[in-house]
Structure formats: structure tokens, C-alpha cells
Specification:
Strand order of the largest sheet: 1-5-4-3-2
Distance between the termini: 71 Å
Number of helices: 18
CATH class of the largest domain: Alpha Beta
CATH architecture of the largest domain: 2-Layer Sandwich
Largest sheet: 5 strands, mixed
Radius of gyration: 36 Å
């Protein structure tokens, strides 16, 4: 404890005058009498006059309020009272330092969850970390939360509106400080809350909260809470638990959607940050080996109204707009600009279907690898049928649904090194247009006609019957998927 800190605490009970502090020395012990040992506070009394606090060259004159301030002769009782009170203050400070040192030491070898549990034990109270979007990041498991309202906060992932309003009031009425803690009464709960600001990289990132009901918070809890919070803030910051500080508050909303956090909590948060849910939207996922932050920035510049966030080592963007509006985007140009794989969902209207759309994009990514599709621009709608097939657990039964004609063509191609299966697939994709099919296959139209006649002769199918095309397309998709799985 610093000499000035001890003097400041003693001033609350004793009358101190003639205070001189030349160097703010550290005080470790207190003794009665004269001496010059470093880090020691000496309490001495002259033959006549007031008591003196002496720490090397620093000193203060002390008058006990229990006697007349004009008295020059002080009894031994005053010396003992001052000695005991000073020792009590110093002992409390040293105990706090020991507790904090233990928490700090523990944090060097454990993750944030273990540290918050250990800190709750040391402070003998529950702890919760909330970011500056009022999202619950972490909480102690050492004790059950006494307040059922705050258990609801844990369940929904966000703090209550009364706490949000209290925080905003605190920000307006207090100066920014990483060392102070503040009491928060709750109008709908008998439980008291003690709150301290959290900073990471000199930015306000959240709050650490402590709860109590029957007893008031101790001085040690009030002083240790902000210091403990900073230890946890550093751990959570290094573990990327706090949001990317370059990302807007709205981006956190997308992260919560992808995590599938409680619907009501997301609605509250959207209202807090002033986000208007679009009537129609599209999800775009960017896959790259590195430079995700750069891709995020480019997407924000290209689509200012989009929600963009890094999630599961992908850049995910939610683009508002109707299908005709989004069609104006040249997706191939976007892929060339970003130089990464771009996966585009179909347009959808339910904001809370975003997680499901993201899962579909990841299935599309996986199937493109299985099917050896080297394309860097993928549309989920092109993989819907394959995704449905991929979700069937008993895949061996799929063979029974493949048209016999398709199976026959496959065997013929293997035996004769022909390309009848590929020709049939392209013919169906081109809607039976023979000219376009020939161009896509880079063959003469007569060659195409010969192949189509061969297919009809082998299978007995009438390729002019468009009602067969869906059945054949399903068979081709199943055959392709099964072949990729076998590989």
C-alpha cells in the first residue's frame, strides 16, 4: 500500500494535519517508535505535541477526535488506537492484494471459464461478463445464480432491459474508469448488482457484474471486482470472445443468428441497435485460406447495408434485397474481385431462417468437393437435390430409384468408352434444345443426333417426352452422388 493511500484512508477517522509527501513510498509494515527501515510506517509521539506518522522523509501530524484538538499531551490509548486502525487498513489491503495475485497467477495457466469460476470462489459471489451489446459472454458456475431474472438472462443470452437502461444511466452520470465499481438496484428484484466497466485495447467492451441479496457488498468485493474484470477481459479478448472491434454492432446480430440464439433475445437486440429486418435477403459465404479481415472489409464496402461477420473461418454476409434486386449483382464479377470461393444461398424471407440457410451453404460446399466440382462460384439451388439425397442415411437404397435406362447407359459407356450419360445429362439441362446441347458439348449437331438415337435404341426411352426428364435428372443426380461417395 502506498503511503498516500494509507493517509487517505486514515483521514476518514483521524484528524491529519501538516501532511508532507515527498516520495510516495510503499508501506508493508507498521511499528510504534522511531526507525528508518524501508517500507515501514512509524507512529511516534514527542514529549509534547500530536502523534506523528513517519515514513522516511514523509510525515503527517495526527490528532485523535476522541480528545480535545487543543491538547498537546496524548495518552497511550490514542497511540494504540491509531496503530490498530492503521494495521487493520494495511492488513485488509494486503489481503486484497493476496486474493488478486492468486487470481492473476491462476489466469496464466487456465482459460477464461476456469478463471471466472476461481475468481467467484475468491470473491465469494457469482460473476457474469456482458459485452457492450449486453450479450452474456461468460458466467461463473461456482454458485447458483440467486436471482431468477438473471438466470433468464443466461438462458436467452442477453441482459434485461432494466439493466440496459441502468448501464446507459451510469455511462451518462459517471466518468470512464477501469478502477471503479457501481451499485445497481433493480426495480423488479430484491437483488443488488455491482458493476464495473471492462476495457480491452483501450476500448470499452463490456461489464463485469456481481450479485448479492441479503448483505451489502464488502469493501474488498467493491475494490477487487474491476481489477478481476480486467483480467477476464484480457482472457476473453485474446480468446476472441469479444466481438471484432472493427465490426459494427449489427454484425453481432448476424453472429447470433448463425449461433441460433433465442429468437426473443435477437428481436430485443435488433431493437436496441436500430436494425430493420429486411423483407427479403440472401446469404453469401466466402471461403478463403487467409485474409478474412480483408474480405470482410471488401464486402462491407461493396454492400454497406449488409451484415458481415467472420464465422467458423468463413466470411458470412447477409444481403438485404428482393430476388430481382440481387440478380443485378454480377456474381462472377464479385468472385473475380474477391478471388475466393463464393457460395450463394437462394433468396428467403424469414430472418430467423438464416441459420438453416447457412447450413445449406456448408452442405453445398461439402458436396462440391465430393462431386469434384472445381467451380469457385456455387449456387445452393443447384445442389438442393444432392443435399436431400446426402441426408438419407441408408444410401444403398438409392440405387433402387435409379432408372434402369440410366444404369444401362452407364454400363455401355464403361464397356465402349462412349459419353452417352454426359450427352443425356446435358440434353436435359438444355431443355431438349439440340443446337444449344451440341454447342455445350462442342460436337456437331449430327453427332448429337446420332448419340440421342443410340440412347433411345439402348433404353427404349422417348427423349422427346419432357415428362421423363425430371425422372432421368433425378436418376443422374443419384448416380453421380453415389459414384462420388464410392470414390
Amino acid at each position: 500500500m502506498k503511503y498516500s493511500e494509507l493517509v487517505s484512508k486514515l483521514e476518514k477517522k483521524f484528524i491529519l494535519t501538516d501532511i508532507q509527501i515527498h516520495q510516495d513510498n510503499e508501506i508493508n509494515t507498521i511499528q510504534i517508535g522511531n526507525g528508518t527501515q524501508p517500507h515501514t510506517l512509524y507512529i511516534e509521539q514527542a514529549v509534547a505535541g500530536p502523534l506523528k506518522l513517519v515514513s522516511c522523509a514523509d510525515h503527517a501530524c495526527v490528532r485523535c477526535p476522541c480528545i480535545s484538538q487543543t491538547s498537546t499531551n496524548l495518552s497511550n490509548q490514542a497511540v494504540v488506537a491509531l496503530f490498530n486502525d492503521a494495521n487493520e487498513v494495511l492488513a485488509a489491503e494486503q489481503q486484497q492484494e493476496a486474493l488478486f495475485s492468486g487470481i492473476l497467477q491462476y489466469s496464466l495457466t487456465h482459460d477464461h471459464q476456469a478463471v471466472i469460476d476461481f475468481a467467484a470462489t475468491q470473491l465469494n459471489n457469482t460473476l457474469m461478463i456482458i459485452d457492450d451489446n449486453y450479450r452474456v459472454l461468460a458466467y461463473s458456475h461456482t454458485f447458483p445464480f440467486p436471482d431468477p431474472l438473471w438466470q433468464q438472462n443466461i438462458d436467452q443470452g442477453y441482459s434485461r432491459l432494466d439493466f440496459i437502461q441502468g448501464i446507459k444511466k451510469m455511462l451518462a452520470q459517471t466518468k470512464p474508469s477501469a478502477q471503479a465499481s457501481y451499485r445497481f438496484p433493480c426495480p423488479v428484484s430484491p437483488y443488488q448488482r455491482l458493476v464495473a466497466r471492462l476495457y480491452f485495447q483501450h476500448e470499452l467492451v463490456g461489464y463485469v457484474v456481481m450479485f448479492n441479496d441479503q448483505q451489502d457488498f464488502t469493501v474488498a468485493q467493491q475494490q477487487l471486482l474491476p481489477r478481476t474484470g480486467q483480467v477476464l477481459s484480457d482472457l476473453l479478448g485474446r480468446a476472441a470472445a469479444f466481438k471484432d472491434y472493427q465490426v459494427s454492432v449489427r454484425a453481432q446480430l448476424l453472429s447470433d443468428l448463425l449461433e441460433g440464439i433465442n429468437v426473443n433475445a435477437i428481436k430485443v437486440n435488433a431493437q436496441i441497435v436500430g436494425y430493420t429486418v429486411p423483407q427479403s435477403m440472401c446469404l453469401v459465404v466466402l471461403k478463403a485460406a487467409d485474409q478474412l479481415a480483408r474480405l470482410c472489409q471488401k464486402m462491407r464496402e461493396r454492400f454497406p447495408e449488409a451484415l458481415v461477420v467472420v464465422y467458423q473461418e468463413r466470411v458470412v454476409a447477409l444481403l438485404p434485397g428482393s430476388l430481382p434486386t440481387l440478380k443485378k449483382i454480377t456474381w462472377s464479377d464479385l468472385q473475380q474481385q474477391l478471388q475466393c470461393q463464393v457460395i450463394v444461398s437462394n433468396c428467403y424471407h424469414d430472418f430467423f431462417a438464416t441459420k438453416a440457410q447457412y447450413i445449406i451453404t456448408r452442405h453445398t460446399e461439402k458436396l462440391s468437393l465430393q462431386l469434384q466440382d472445381q467451380a469457385q462460384l456455387l449456387f445452393c439451388r443447384d445442389y438442393y437435390f444432392a443435399i436431400m439425397l446426402d441426408r438419407i442415411k441408408q444410401r444403398d437404397v438409392l440405387t433402387a430409384f435409379i432408372d434402369p435406362g440410366v444404369q444401362q447407359l452407364q454400363q455401355y459407356d464403361l464397356a465402349n468408352q462412349t459419353e452417352l450419360i454426359m450427352t443425356l445429362a446435358q440434353y436435359i439441362r438444355c431443355g431438349g434444345n439440340q443446337t444449344i446441347t451440341a454447342e455445350r458439348l462442342f460436337i456437331h449437331r449430327n453427332t448429337l443426333l446420332n448419340r440421342l438415337h443410340k440412347i433411345e435404341d439402348l433404353t427404349g426411352l422417348d427423349l422427346k417426352d419432357s415428362q421423363l426428364w425430371f425422372q432421368l435428372e433425378c436418376s443422374l443426380q443419384m448416380q453421380r452422388l453415389l459414384a462420388s461417395l464410392n470414390r
